[in-house]
Amino acid sequence: MKNLMLTFGLFFLTFGTIYSQSVIGKWKTIDDETGEAKSIIEVYEKSGKIYGKVVDILRADHKKDVCTKCDGAEKNKPIMGMVIINGLKKEGSEYNGGTILDPTNGKKYKCYITLDSPDKLKLRGYVGISIVGRTQYWTRVKN
Question: Where is the DUF2147 domain (predicted)?
Answer without folding.
Answer: 25-140
